[in-house]
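Technical note accompanying the year-one report. For the benefit of new consortium partners, we illustrate the data format agreed upon in the data management plan: each record pairs a sequence with a structure-token string. No post-processing was applied to the example shown here.
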Amino acid sequence: MKRVIFWVEGQKIKGTLILPRVVKDKNPGVLFIHGWTSSEEGYIPRAKAVAKHGAICLTFNLRGHGKSEGRLGDFSRKDHLKCYGCL
């Protein structure tokens, strides 16, 4: 389990990367996205269970949630669905 940080519009997003015991050239990947007003914490045990079956898992806190930066009231659900770097 490794804590990770990435940036969205200048704000830190905090998450957790959970690797399987054996990392191969092509492990499946699973992204866990929590619900509104929740956090990644409830998904870490699920991600650990999935990683035991060989998947690389990432959980994270949306902006304004959990330990990520931002205030929840500043974002709409639509804000979290923006596609950055999409064509």
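Partners are asked to follow this layout when depositing records. The two ends are 32 Å apart (CA to CA).
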